[in-house]
Fold:
Amino acid sequence: MTIRYACNSSEHGMARRSFLGTMAAAGTGAITGGLGAFARSAVSEQLIREQKRIVIWDMHGGLSQLESWDPKPGTDTGGPFRSIPTSVPGIGICELLPRTAQQMHHLCLVRGVNTSEDDHGKGRYKVLTGRPQTPAANNPEIGAVAAKALMPEDYALPGHILITPGGGGGRSNDAAYLGPKYASVQLGNGKPPENTVLPDTITVESDAARQDFRRHLNERFLSRRRTAVTDAYGYSYEQALQLMQHRDVFDVSKEPAKDHERYGKHDLGRHALLARRMLEMGTPVVKLSHSNYDTHHENFNFHIEQLGELDRAFSCFVEDLADRGMLESTLIIMFSEFGRTPRINTRYGRDHWSHAWSVLMAGCRMPRGATYGKTNDNGTEVIEGQVDHANLFHTYLQAVGVDSTASFDIEGREVPLADPSSHPIEEILA
Structure:
């Protein structure tokens, strides 16, 4: 099915080619030797299970809350789809998500989100950083903040992974002043990062000698001119070596064939399976995307197709994390930059709507099988439990045990983790 989008924003022009782009930068850190062992002893496996993690499902473009988490059947805004019962009595979601409905006892729906920003770029900035966009500051996204707060110092592999079609191993620019060490590394298509195999002309012994010589020169240079930039170069080389040694960690083809069948043999199915694999390996922050929900045209036909993929992959993902005992330590977040208008336009589409939409969470301190917030009968406004981007950002951090009122020390300057004028949603933090 071909969808033509009425929204011609630069963000979506970029999104259709490459979700976030790449930035060939490396991480900061005073590391010039190895990054530590990647052993999987019984003790390390227990630590991995208990370590807090965040996985973000980004429904890029604006998932319709009316065709997902907050249906309004039988109203002037409801559209053609029914609300179906879930595994939690009294909670219904759209009939396009029947498998996810059976996982509702693990989920928490926040149905009263109002971010008051209908522009794609500014809306994404609010949702991802918890703050409004201004010319005066560039703030890190939730994934980078969580990576800095949660990533163990001796973690050998990238602690912030972005899984997106076409991702080839480059770093994004989503960490802002936290530095590229905490920026996401892009992976895609269920394959290891590119260029992580030695050329045939270089032996393992020869490469080891080269790396020893590089470290020796690096140490001499750092003893006189150490800066955050020079540390970043050293860190990048060491992490690249770790990627080469453990590249199979990123190879989703190692997962059983039955799991590939369950999740679906499409990009989102492979990416969800890779996300599960990365979380099982102890990666603190994983983000994956599903695009493009900007349905100004043919909203209903599009959601039939798109949510078929989402329902299958997401329901398997939640079920597997629950069965593996990982929900206690893993926070699942699903959001967009906003929702879709209750009003249906003349092209059978829905436009941008940030004033009454939904965010899904599960795991860690989130209540199981719950809803918070309420919209009116036709979904045009929040009438109970209204929250915004800043409340959600605080809540994400608090849910994984991070004090969202604390500050990072950035070169001697205290910078709050989250908007200090806001607060978490205490009512849903168990």
